[in-house]
Amino acid sequence: MKVTIFGTGYVGLVTGACLADVGHDVLCMDVDQGKIERLKNGQIPIYEPGLEAIVSHNVEAGRLLFTTDAEQAVQHGILQFIAVGTPPDEDGSADLQYVTAVAKTIGQYMTDYKVIIDKSTVPVGTGDKVYAAARASLDHRGLELELDVVSNPEFLKEGAAVNDFMKPDRIVIGTESERARELLREVYYPFNRNHDRMIYMDRRSAELTKYAANAMLATKISFMNEIANLAERLGADIEAVRRGIGSDPRIGYHFIYPGCGYGGSCFPKDVTALSRTARDCGYESRLLNAVEAVNAAQKHVLFDKVSHYFGGDLSGKVVALWGLAFKPNTDDMREASARTLMENLWKADARVQAFDPEAMDETQRIYPDEEGLQLCGTKEQALKGADVLVICTEWKEFRSPDFPAIAAALREPVVFDGRNLYEPEMLTRYGLMYYAIGRGSNQFQSA
After folding, report:
1. Of 143, 195, 325, 377, which residue is 20 to 30 A from 240 by alpha carbon distance?
2. Of 18, 266, 376, 392, catalytic
């Protein structure tokens, strides 16, 4: 099938590359000329495991093309995927200007039947706005062409997006059009050979499904962080509690890991946007508001622990920081807990020596002139001359470090672990004091 993708970010590029990889003829459109030129030359603008090889292979095979020509893009495919950004507006609601702009563009250039597919995460009712925007462009041209709008939300985890797309647990299709449904069934057929993963529903239900899924996952994380904070005050060990409740199949082990707060491009903005949607229709979502509040507070827990250890005076202290990205296997630092920690440390006149396997360039881009930041080439270099070590991201290479070397390098043999990577007894054997999240009475209370 001929498929057009508007947007070459995480969602758009992964969608286009994976559809091309199963044989479809895909054209990706973006207004960023520099990005398109880099993609044509095989340069991937994001770090996502496995994506670069798929893009290169399909560009070479001629199944994956890139353009800045909107008319060419609209003419190319009967299926027109919208995968542009929906950043939070000032009031927390999703900004739909880029989504509706694409819809207007499609209406401006289409000459036959098209299916517009909302792949971006959009509030309930956006499909109606997309249809109206495209129809307005058609009316301006005096044309009565047929048009369908489908909600097809993505469920891709950064760091595992390619695998999630190629082996989806569900493919949600929101439409009342049988014609559009058949076309979507055809384009996704290669991903359904083992068993049918297609779930059909109306458009508004599909739009809400995406937000509800992310809100549920965020809720589990914030709940566990609440229990972890309580465990510290009660002298309990949250890791034992986690295993105890996770063994219940009604709860499960997924997303019940306590830590220093969730981040990324999805959970924070989607929970906020859903809460805003609730208010707009006259409903106050107390649970979602609490999820946001718990997460915002959790991002300060590591700083509070470090500050408490030094008696509230961090002036001149040097903190080694392992992990900058909001999660492993990505270079994405949007809403990352490490950013909150670093900014708090700088306000307290402390300095940071940081290392991350993939997010160093992104950190430099975000903080180009920060004098209190030194980016180090290895995790070992980050330790040299540092007072303490703080861990913000659970990269695999941090899981089994040289503990005696850590103890020897630090001025104070102290590790603050925001992801609970280690067993306290093990670090004690190596002469290290260990402060994690919710690991019992040996923890410092938040200030």
Report:
1. 325
2. 266
Kindly state the helix (H) or strand (E) to which residue 207 belongs, with its residue range.
helix 203-234
- What Cα–Cα distance (Å) separates residue 331 from each residue in 149, 226, 361, 364, 393? 33, 28, 8, 12, 11
DSSP-assigned letters across all residues of 212-226? HHHHHHHHHHHHHHH
Evaluated on CA atoms 141, 147, 151, 154, the torsion sign reads negative
CA 160 centroid distance within chain: 11
- Helices 267-280 and 203-234: crossing angle in degrees, nearest 10, is 120
pLDDT confidence band for 93 (50 / 70 / 90): confident
Where residue 369 falls (left for φ over 0; alpha for ψ -120 to 50; beta otherwise) is alpha
Q: Show the DSSP H helices in 348-409 as ranges.
A: 360-366, 379-383, 403-409
Per-residue pLDDT tens digits for 363-390: 999 999 999 999 999 999 999 999 999 9
- Spatial strand order in the sheet of 414-417: 373-375, 351-355, 318-322, 388-391, 414-417, 433-435
The total of other beta-carbon atoms located within 10 Å of residue 239's CB is: 20
Of residues 7, 152, 184, the one with CA closest to residue 86: 7
**Calpha distance 154→164 (Å, rounded):** 10
List of residues 6+ apart from 337 with CB closer than 8 A: 259, 260, 261, 262, 263, 298, 299, 302, 326, 392, 418
Model pTM?
0.90
Give which of 376, 378, 391, 372 is closest to 432, Cα–Cα: 391
Q: Which two tokens stand for residue 64?
A: 């994956």
Q: How many Å apart are CA 94 and CA 81, to the nearest integer?
A: 18
Sign of the torsion formed by the C-alpha atoms of 100, 102, 108 and 114: negative
